[in-house]
Design brief:
By secondary structure, the protein is α/β, with parallel strands linked by helices. It has helices spanning 4-13, 98-107, 128-137, 150-158, 161-165, 236-248, 269-279, 299-306, 323-330, 355-358, 364-368, 374-379, 383-400, 409-414, 418-438; strands at residues 34-36, 121-123, 172-179, 209-214, 222-224, 253-259, 284-288, 308-313, 333-336, 360-361. It contains 15 helices and ten strands. Mean pLDDT is 92; it is low at 1-21. Bound molecules: 2-acetamido-2-deoxy-beta-D-glucopyranose (2 copies). Its main location: Golgi.
């Protein structure tokens, strides 16, 4: 297999030119200039060695969630191998490799600048989730998990300190795969809790913006971006062909649940869904994704999603799930049971004001304790309304797709994808913060302004 560090170097060499235009040409990069911080490979490409089954022999490799990403997932800059040799747009994507992929996509952007003094934002290409693996997988390192990221913080403070001090870190951003909760254990917790680190609690990084696939209730440090799916088209015809297939697919199943099927011990929404589906096999389909069975195999659930009108998206261990984005892509109208599942998270990608047009909301308490039957609720939605919602959800789909790197100019011109919208959002947030800083309104720097998109 190709050596990823070498590929990255090649690309880096090609972006050294400062694209600032001549004095009177309109400046298409105004407000959008990004400087990529140069950090030693031990903070990114060297960490790719953590992939593969042999890396952490002490862990149980049979459980996907508690192991390192498989070595194959490194292919295609982290998109993973194609699902089968002739597949053009489908990959076995492991979400934990979103950091190298995002890095690759930033490298192909316009408006990169070599000189940080000219940059509106500074991207730190740190592969944080991969660097966290030793702490969350190797029991011998558990006690040191508050150190996750500390070495990077030390490096950033020491190396060309003016880059960091210019805006006190407010213009720095990075991508961190996973939920912000996984990185926000209090550094003082003793004994250390298994499975999370304290990256977001490092005081040196407090002013950075972290892009995570799930944010906390009060996300002043992070902002949520869509979980990656397995669909990464590189041409406009490939994107359109998929959307047409989803649009016209025959949907004989009313509702689908794809997820873990173990019955919870306490009453909760997932338990209610499983019980209702067991009774109503005429209207509800279940795809068993227990133990990470579906994580590298989109065929397991995408076909079922194409045949279903509604996809149930209950919270699991955390409020958000990748399946929400698979459903949107499949034109399967998502059913949410709490606002934290998506509406309060992905405001840069999906306009919160329009959720009623492309999703259904059923408060979980009404189902678990109020006797509401999901099947009956969804059966009462008129067919024309379901069609309208499906049309809307497929209009949203391109915004949550992670287009393949090196896509055609035609696809890039057709609309912004998940990476483009994430970068737009982070530039808006950084602009607001650095302006507050310049104007001496320090008390408003961390203000939680609603910067969701409207459409
Ligand atoms: C974060 O920003 C605040 C306000 O600008 C500043 O007082 C503080 O020193 C910054 N923290 C770091 C670690 O740079
Ligand atoms: C399932 O069916 C049984 C027997 O008809 C009924 O008692 C129970 O309430 C049903 N449960 C759900 C969740 O629909």
């Amino acid at each position: 297999m190709a050596n990823p560090p070498f590929l990255f170097l090649l690309v880096l060499l090609n972006v050294a030119a400062d694209p600032r235009a001549g004095a009177d040409a309109p400046d298409s990069c105004a407000g959008r200039r990004i400087h990529i911080r140069r950090i030693p490979p031990r903070f990114n490409t060297d960490l790719l060695r953590h992939c593969g089954a042999d890396t952490f022999p002490l862990t149980d490799a049979s459980a996907a969630a508690t192991s390192a990403p498989p070595w194959e997932s490194l292919a295609n800059h982290g998109l993973g191998p194609r699902t089968h040799p002739r597949s053009r747009s489908w990959y076995r994507t492991d979400a934990r490799l979103m950091e190298p992929f995002f890095h690759r996509r930033i490298l192909e952007r316009e408006c990169l600048v070599d000189d940080p003094a000219h940059a509106d934002a500074v991207f730190v290409p740190y592969y944080a989730a991969l660097d966290a693996l030793p702490y969350v997988l190797d029991p011998a390192l558990l006690d040191a998990s508050a150190r996750h990221g500390a070495e990077l913080a030390e490096f950033l403070a020491r190396d060309q300190p003016r880059i960091l001090s210019r805006r006190q870190g407010h213009d720095h951003f990075l991508v961190v795969s996973g939920s912000a909760w996984d990185y926000s254990q209090s550094p003082a917790t003793d004994p250390r809790l298994w499975g999370s680190t304290s990256l977001l609690r490092l005081p040196e990084l407090a002013n950075f913006t972290f892009l995570t696939t799930e944010s906390r209730m009060w996300p002043w440090q992070e902002h949520a971006i869509p979980h990656p799916t397995s669909f990464h088209p590189s041409t406009l015809p490939h994107l359109r062909a998929w959307l047409a297939r989803a649009r016209w697919s025959r949907r004989a199943t009313l509702m689908l649940f794809a997820g873990g099927v173990s019955r919870p011990s306490r009453p909760n929404i997932r338990g209610s869904i499983l019980a209702e589906c067991a009774n109503r096999t005429d209207a509800c389909a279940v795809v068993d994704c227990s133990g990470g069975k579906c994580s590298h195999d989109p065929g397991m659930y995408m076909r079922a999603m194409l045949r279903s009108k509604f996809c149930l998206e209950p919270p699991g261990d955390t409020p958000t799930r990748r399946s929400t984005f698979d459903a949107i892509l499949a034109g399967c109208v998502p059913v949410f049971f709490e606002d934290l599942a998506a509406r309060k998270q992905y405001g840069w990608h999906l306009p919160p004001a329009r959720y009623d047009e492309f999703s259904v909301h059923i408060p979980k308490e009404t189902v678990v304790f109020g006797g509401v039957r999901i099947v009956e609720m969804l059966q009462s939605v008129p067919e024309a309304e379901v069609r309208r919602m499906r049309k809307r959800v497929l209009e949203m789909a391109p915004r949550v797709v992670y287009r393949r790197h090196g896509s055609t100019a035609e696809l890039r011109a057709a609309g912004k994808d998940a990476v483009d919208l994430a970068v737009d959002g982070v530039l808006r947030r950084i602009r607001r913060r650095t302006r507050a800083q310049e104007e001496g309104r320090t008390e408003t720097i961390y203000a939680m302004e609603d910067d969701s998109v409207e459409m």
